[in-house]
Amino acid sequence: MKKFLLFFFSMTYGLMLGAQTNVQLNIHHKMGDAPFAILTPAKNNIDHDFDFKRMQYYISEISLTHDGGQVTPIEDTWLLVDATESTVVDLGDYDMTQLEAIRFHIGVDSMHNHLDPASWPNDHPLAPKSPTMHWGWIAGYFFITLEGRGGPNYDQNIELHGLLDDNYHAIELPLSETAVDNQLVINVAADYTRALEDIEVNDGNILHGGVGSARHAIENFRDYVFSIGGPATVSTIELSELQSLELYPNPSTSRHSTVRINTTGQHVYDLNICDVLGQSIQSITQVQSNEAIALELPAQGVYMIQLVKAGQTVLTKRLVVQ
Questions:
Q1: Does residue 241 or residue 22 have the better pLDDT?
Q2: Domains in the chain: ranges and CATH
Q3: Which among 308, 311, 321, 319 is positioned nearest to 259, based on CA atoms?
Q4: How many CA atoms lie within 13 A of 273 on its CB side?
Q5: How far, in whole angstroms, is CA 181 from its chain's centroid?
Q6: What is the pTM of this model?
Q7: 126: DSSP letter
Q8: Which residues, other chains included, contact 1 with Cβ-Cβ below 8 Å and sequence gap of 6+?
Q9: Which of 167-171, 232-236, 259-263, 312-316 is predicted with the least confidence, judged by mean pLDDT?
Q10: Mean pLDDT for all residues in the chain
């Protein structure tokens, strides 16, 4: 009997040690309090008018502080963030239960900033892009590219493309998140109206480089753009309606899976399917409560299934295709 109890304890303890937490990063793209949208009129803190038609930037060297000050780096991860697309990134599975901070850098680290983009696979964030995110091997990648129009009539061009190793900055945001069902979700709000803090744009502003307004915009990303938070109001309302988001089978041994949304009462949602880099690969609109939706995914891998209402992500679940 003692041998059996010892064996049972050992197996249970081993399973507890083997249980890992999946960590997701969700960046909620904003223009002030509203979701980001191209050509949305806005003003900066010096009352200059502007809108954006392009907003892209790199994130590198992500690390997580957790469980009493332990620091875990997210190895070999670069994100090319596009504010016009959903950004839900699977950061991986780790032994952690309490998140205390996330740290990341805007731009590309110097070790990789001057490599040939053609050396990366086509689908890699650092591979050649169109429109380009690279300005030659000496200068390296554009850390941020924001483009739009300025002035009261929105008839002046804005192009700030910031780069150079000296402008590679770290951002650290405090967290207080506890794992639920072996999952931790980091919600980061990005308010792009603050990218032009104290930058004059009423007469336009075009600068590609690492000084002046381009440098200032990168510093604004470091100081003002990011905060912890997401669509709290929408999520609170919708989670009171939502009973469960079922994915089955999960993991799946084929490319075919089914999604079902169980709610109290009848509601309508959208589904957004993203890859692990947060790139949207499929959208399904007008999904009714308790409706079974068949998914056919393009390949093996990890996918993020987002439940969306009123343009805001309410819940995200991971689907594994083996």
A1: 22
A2: 21-228 (no CATH), 232-321 (2.60.40.1930)
A3: 319
A4: 21
A5: 21
A6: 0.76
A7: T
A8: none
A9: 232-236
A10: 87
- CB of 43 within 8 A of CB of 49? yes
- Look up residue 289 and give its two tokens: 């409560």
Asked if residue 184 lies in contact with residue 22, where contact means CB atoms within 8 angstroms, the answer is: yes
pLDDT, average across residues 109-134: 96
pLDDT, one tens digit per residue, over 281-298 is 888 988 888 888 899 888
Biggest CA pair distance of the chain: 83
Q: Which comes out higher in pLDDT, residue 234 or 42?
A: 42
Listed residue (289, 285, 278, 267) closest to 318, CA to CA: 278
Q: Tokens 């110097």 label which residue?
A: 110
The neighbour count for residue 149, using CB atoms within 10 Å, is 19
In whole angstroms, give the CA distance from residue 57 to residue 83.
9
- Measure CA 195 to chain center: 17
The span from the CA of 202 to the CA of 102, in Å, is: 35
Q: Is 280 exposed, middle or buried (0-12, 13-18, 19+ CB in 10 A)?
A: middle
Write out pLDDT tens, residues 93-103. 999 999 999 99
Of 68, 76, 67, 69, nearest in space to 95 by CA? 67
**Nearest partner of 54 among 155, 195, 226, 188, judged by Cα:** 195
Tokens 């499929």 correspond to what residue?
A: 282
Q: Are 262 and 244 in contact (CB under 8 A)?
A: yes
Residue 186 has pLDDT above 60, yes or no: yes
